[in-house]
Every structure is written in C-alpha cells, then in structure tokens.
Amino acid sequence: MAIHEIKNNPTLSGQVRLIENVVYAAADGQALKLEVLTPWTQRYPQEYTTEPRPLIVFVQGSSWRLPTFGEKIPQLVQFVKNGYIVATVQHRNSLDGHPFPAFLDDVKTAIRFLRVNAKKYAIDPERVAIWGTSSGANAAMLVGLTGDDPKYKTADYDDQSDAVSAVVSCFAPMDVEETFKYTDKVPGNDILKYCLFGMDKKKWPEIMHEMSPLYRVVEGKQYPPFQLFHGDADKVVPYHQMEEMAQKLESVGAEVEAYRVTNANHERDFWSQAIYDNVLAFLDKVLKS
Fold it and tell me: Could you give the angle at the alpha carbon of 109 between the alpha carbons of 92 and 161, nearest 5°?
C-alpha cells in the first residue's frame, strides 16, 4: 500500500477561524451578539503573530428583524483569506418592540466594541468598512452618513468612534417611505411599519425621512467612499433608488461606485463571484492603498 505525503502548514496559511456568539453589549435586557472571522493564527497568540488587518463589519438583511448570522459567512470567508477580519453583526428585532433607531444604535455600538477589542481580534481600528444587504445595507448607509453623530451613540464604549472608512451597500432601501409603498401588498407590511415607526402615525413621515439615506446627505460634510449595487429587477426595493443615491452622493463630492446587476431580483440571483470580486477590489483600493 502506498502512503502519500502532504507537507504540513507551519504558518497556518489560508486557515480561517470562526469565533461565535460574541456578546458586544446588552440593550433592554437583551444580549447583542456578533461573530468574527479571523485567521487561524489568531487562535494561538503565544505562538503566532497576526498582524492587524482591516475590518469588514457585515450586516445581513432581515427586514429590520433579527439578522441571521450564517447567511453569508460561507461567502465572507474569502475576504479573510484576502487579508481582512470580518465581523457579522446582529441588532435588535423591530418586531420585538425596538423601533428605529434601535438597529442603527446597535450596529454603531458593535463598531465601537470591535475598536475597543481591536488587539484581541487582530483588527486595525483605523481601517474599518461596513457592508450590508437590504435592511442591513440601509443600516450600513446610515452608519456611513452619520459617523460619530451623538444622536445615535449609546453609553457603551463611548470613547470610541463609530465612523467608517468605506461603505458597501447591496440593494438598500434608500427611500424608506417609497420602499414600503412598493411592497404594500406584502403580508406583514403594516405590522412592520408600526414596529419600526411607532404607534403614532403622524410621526411616521418624519421617522421614515430620518431613516432614508437619500435624505441624510448634506453639503459640506466629509463622507467615506461608497460602493452601491442593486438588481434592476428587484421586487422589494426599487432599482432607481440606487441611481438616485449615487447621484446625490456625487452632487456633494463624495466618492461613489455604482453597479447595476442586470435582471437580478432581491437577494436570490443577485449574488455571483463578480460581486465579491468587485467588493474586494473596492475595499483593497480604499483600505490597503
């Protein structure tokens, strides 16, 4: 019988570690969690040095409910193999009585937590990007547009910044009121509005406006670079919102890349390796150049 040989991997090259169920804060008595993807070397700090890496904070779309951790982790592994730390973040569920801005407060708190623990997770706290899909992309856009805004800063790790150096958005609701009208016939639409905006319908327009990235862009403010993707057959969030957002950002001098994904619906057939390759190229340009 032939015994085949494979060389060992003394540098642990290409190996990725998943650190599960990290509690980053508590709100309303509820533990808020994130999960971290790091190089395998980070598991053995006494034997290996893991140089600080840029961080990608990922927020999974969930219709502003509780995001699912595992939805994109298999695809996000490739970013660790290309030199990043990735943290996928949960936020409070609006259906459990946590209206806007709870989800935004939580994501910003997670960013500050990760900066506090930068050394532990081999993060370079000066190079942080946020990437979201759908409602998670709405959160990502708002984070990028409201860096260190005291209105959305909780007491947790308040000596840290929640600003980011880059934003990636995939099929984000940029105009929240229009998005809800677009999906008016979807079961549960009305319940979600009450959960997100509260019981006083007179206040809804103001809250929806505040929650819409399209209306949060202002002249004279420094913004991070943005990369926007949207499918032109999206049946949940109208495609034209992405084009309007790109134009709005460009009008105030922000750096923006916009991609139309032809014939793509919401999630589903939107994803391909081309998307991930474009995100990696964008983040490398912004965070590694």
Answer: 155
